[in-house]
Model the fold of this input.
Amino acid sequence: MPSLTGEIQAEFAVRSGKTQLVHKYHASPLKIAKTFRYVNETLLHDANPTDQLGVYMMDCSPGLMSGDHYEINVRLGEGARVFLTNQSFTKVHPSEAGHGSTQRQTLHLEEDAMLEYMPEPLMLYKDACLAAEMDVHLATGSVLIFSDVCCPGRTQRGEIFQYSRYMNRMKVWYGKELIFYQNQRIEPKTMQLSAPGCWERETHLGNLYIFSDRLKQRHLEEVLGSLEKLEGVNVRIGASLTYKYGLIVTVMGRHAWELQLTLSKAWHDIRRSLLALTPLMVNK
Done:
């Protein structure tokens, strides 16, 4: 099958006091399927509810095939507030030798913009090869909350760490300063992933990234304290502040839903402690 390039471009701005999708472009198989309005209830008694736009991205194909490339570019204007997600797992199918799949995402947040980006998990099929990269550009007062969950394959079919390679690079700029850099490479056939100090018995990995120039040590302590009380999941949890303006929560376990539940808890906690906002509620 010939390779495909799917693309989404989306730009948001505040118009008449509300966040609006002011420009969009998509190339199949990616598209913006739906937008809807959220109302953020503030925890401050003297503040009014804030507006936020919800956006669903859709992949109308079975997933990333050998040689496919996805390009996603999102820009938020000053004061814009967006919740972004997709409709299902991102599935990466087997790749032919030398023809892996690629994905590039670029996020631009202008002053006081807020983006909460919560995609569904990434599913790496047997013999899949994916190189993913994300570039984030932040301005003063902007906030990014982003989660990712990586699954080792279709576990019910015995696909556990049978993909060939997964590379994931992330860079975050605050103005012109590079404040965060991550470069991850996993090759199950050449690594002892079950070794002590590595993945051991765990198979799924998830992260919640929070970037804001308002982050303090107390936000880390509050998130860790809350997650220590979380019941009903069997996961390993770690969290730390980054070099500058960042907080990362990392979770390892054996089921995607456990990681999603844990990261959602951390997300709701940071909404409350950092942004003084309750969980999102749809305005019907």
